[in-house]
Specification:
The chain has 6 helices and 2 strands, in the order ααααββαα.
Length: 184
């Protein structure tokens, strides 16, 4: 029984330690990056013709996702041997960066159009799905929660489910009008 407790403790450390390290990297980067973004005037651009309540968002530093991406990337490179999931994270991070860049530099408060974001997300997910199917050793098994049963999916169903899960997850908090940064 003792070996089981040691295994669980090692597993807990393998999960908790990277999270703590990523958090610490973010804490260190925030006081460096946020003043730098303010200096570059990378603040939220709000149109005058919008709701008056949105005017208070003007000047709020944007592109804070860079801090999250940096901390995740550094931690992932330290702890993971293979990085296919990092590609997805960086791909979606690039889409967010382009969106914020358009808002700040081009002074277009909407950033990328919805169809442009979705197209980018579909391309990133498609490249990831292709990699998973052709080059990874990930099997097409689906674990049914609470039952402990597994179901072997055919490749087509697996890719459709992968698209649904990845795109659903990435857009889940995005639709809350700018609160996606708070969700992280």
């Amino acid at each position: 029984m003792r070996a089981g407790k040691e295994y669980k403790m090692n597993l807990d450390l393998k999960i908790v330690l990277p999270v703590v390290i990523a958090f610490c990297i973010s804490v260190v980067l925030c006081p460096i990056v946020i003043p730098f973004l303010k200096k570059l005037k990378f603040g939220q651009f709000v149109r005058n013709d919008g709701p008056q309540a949105h005017l208070k968002k003007a000047g709020t530093p944007t592109m804070g996702g860079l801090i999250i991406l940096l901390s995740l990337t550094i931690t992932t490179l330290i702890y993971m041997k293979k990085y296919p999931e990092l590609f997805v994270t960086l791909g979606f991070g690039l889409i967010g960066f382009i969106d914020d860049y358009i808002k700040v530099v081009m002074k277009r408060s909407m950033g990328l159009h919805a169809w442009q974001k979705m197209l980018g997300q579909i391309v990133v997910t498609g490249v990831f799905a292709y990699y998973v199917e052709k080059y990874s050793d990930i099997n097409n098994e689906l674990i049914i929660p609470f039952l402990g049963k597994t179901v072997q999916l055919n490749s087509t169903l697996y890719v459709i489910l992968l698209f649904f899960i990845v795109l659903g997850t990435v857009n889940g908090a995005n639709f809350t009008d700018g609160l996606d940064g708070l969700a992280s």
